């Protein structure tokens, strides 16, 4: 059997692999490299093999490697805001711009689709879910065909939820 077919059959597990057919293989010895003294090696350190302990605070290491300490990056944490909810009952798809503008201004929006036709409701839900996702916010169904869109870092207060509940726009 040709060696290609035999190797394929061995690979597929159709025949056992006979090791007698293979030639004995030896790893070639690595080429000898001259030992060089590096700028960051300390003369009093004992080195075993090719591993050396380098100390980060050592100025010779900093010069040899070319690293410089990075300044600390400080990012402010924006506190959670509470905002008054804006209510929109869209009649046309062009009302989506008002919803997007309010979300970009970090204002929560209630979208009331109870009076909207089915096709407009579907398009508005698609728009609102995309806008809240893009702005890192959240979208919650708070009543039948009523959705609360909340931007990131904004929280609707309990008092505002109670006010919306009185208007029939929020279920607890």
Description:
- The chain has 172 residues and is an alpha/beta fold.
- It is built from five helices and six strands; from the N terminus they run H-H-E-E-H-E-H-E-E-E-H.
- It has helices spanning 3-12, 59-65, 96-104, 118-134, 158-166, and strands spanning 81-82, 86-88, 109-112, 138-143, 146-150, 154-155.
- It has a four-stranded mixed β-sheet with strand order 2-3-5-4. A two-stranded parallel ribbon has the order 1-6.
- Strand 2, helix 3 (96-104) and strand 3 (109-112) form a beta-alpha-beta unit.
- The longest helix has 17 residues, at 118-134.
Cα-atom Rg, whole angstroms?
34 Å
The total beta strand count reads 6
- Which term fits the overall shape? elongated
**Mean pLDDT value:** 76
Outline the low-pLDDT stretches: none
Q: Into which percent range does the helicity of residues fall?
A: 25-40%
Instruction: Return the CATH class of the domain at 81-166.
Output: Alpha Beta
- The span between the termini is 78 Å
Number of helices in the DSSP assignment: 5
Please give the order of strands in the largest beta sheet.
2-3-5-4
Regarding quaternary structure, what we see is single chain
Write the H/E string, N to C.
Answer: HHEEHEHEEEH
Q: What structural class do helix, strand and pairing data support?
A: alpha/beta
CATH homology group of the domain at 81-166: SepF-like protein
Biggest β-sheet strands, sense, barrel: 4 strands, mixed
CATH topology (fold) name of the domain at 81-166: Translation Initiation Factor IF3
- Percentage beta strand: 5-15%
CATH architecture label of the domain at 81-166: 2-Layer Sandwich
């Amino acid at each position: 059997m040709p060696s290609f077919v035999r190797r394929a059959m061995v690979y597929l597990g159709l025949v056992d692999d006979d090791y007698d057919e293979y030639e004995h293989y030896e790893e070639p010895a690595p080429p000898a490299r001259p030992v060089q003294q590096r700028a960051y090696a300390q003369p009093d350190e004992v080195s075993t093999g090719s591993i050396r302990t380098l100390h980060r605070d050592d100025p010779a290491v900093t010069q040899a490697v070319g690293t410089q300490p990075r300044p600390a990056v400080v990012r402010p944490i924006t506190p959670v805001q509470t905002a008054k909810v804006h209510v929109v009952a869209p009649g046309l798809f062009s009302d989506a711009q008002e919803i997007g503008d309010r979300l970009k201004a970090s204002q929560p929006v209630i979208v009331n689709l109870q009076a909207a036709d089915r096709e407009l409701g579907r398009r508005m839900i698609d728009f609102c879910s995309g806008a809240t996702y893009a702005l890192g916010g959240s979208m919650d169904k708070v009543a039948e065909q009523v959705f609360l869109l909340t931007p990131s870092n904004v929280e609707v207060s309990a008092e505002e939820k109670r006010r919306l509940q009185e208007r029939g726009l929020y279920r607890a």
